[in-house]
């Protein structure tokens, strides 16, 4: 039997087993589905939708091209990507995954990136948002707002390091050179802005409608993956597959001087980032440093749920998924390593003796993220429903105009 047939049989057995387990454990499947749905319409949709629509409009109006010319001297020497990559990087950090992949794929479709440049860019533009790190993980799970600053610092430094490491990816196949600008940089940027706007023949109403519909389609896909992996993770746990896989990595945890009790949270985090982070915070026999290292790894790896979302977005282009997956492994280990390196000064400054108090600036930021998360949980579902209705209205209008 060749490898292709083995793969076919394996996938068939896995899907059949999942279907059977859902029939045998309907209550657990339903609970996991509701949990995933709540996460999507309370947090994910309201927090990502404005960024998705805004990015589509900025690309359509030429603002991204304008920013790309200005950021060219920064992005190309550092990461060997065009200046437009700076927009994807900034939006990815602000809004969280998979916004970076969505914008990178859009830039590739518009012809702003070569395939190798897009693969480099997508490897470091997908990361956790500050809202998730501060609001959900540090405050919601660990009940320690100070920890959010360490997790955010190590997460974004690790992300930057991945970009530096991946800058040499595809070096033999792609020659990345700085374009020869003959005029001042600002003049070139304004010219690029104007030329891009002229090339886009769509009226503003059509551009906005297309941006809304495209964003809704992407978010519906993301919601499906969140619900699916929430169910899969729950079923794997109750079928004791998670415990079996956890036994396999206990040796690796001991090599890094981490307690074996973190094995189950690590497996859960490999599949789904939120559940893994929550379970990590509940391990009693692990120190806070060990919990923070594991949480940093989970945040960096992002989980198969997020990676499946990215894979679905990249499948619409010729961007390969493998470089992104390699980058996620690198990001996970780098984030955990930086957490270990920075832990001692962090502990001495914020967790020891008289240093339990934190600066007013940090306190205000922690409260802001917590209030934002609570606001999303309260009003996010209403926003989601309202925007879905608007999308339906745009879609009906588009169908009527075609007829």
From TrEMBL:
- Membrane as a keyword of this entry, yes or no, is yes
| Cross-referenced Pfam families | Gate
Transmembrane region positions?
Answer: 37-59, 79-100, 121-142, 148-169, 207-229, 292-313, 325-343, 378-396
Alphabetically sorted, this entry's keywords are: Membrane, Transmembrane, Transmembrane helix
> Where do the Nucleoside transporter/FeoB GTPase Gate domain residues begin and end?
44-133, 219-315
Per its UniProt record, what InterPro entries does this chain match?
Answer: Gate_dom, Spore_IM_YlbJ
Q: What is this protein called?
A: Sporulation integral membrane protein YlbJ
Q: Which gene encodes it?
A: ylbJ
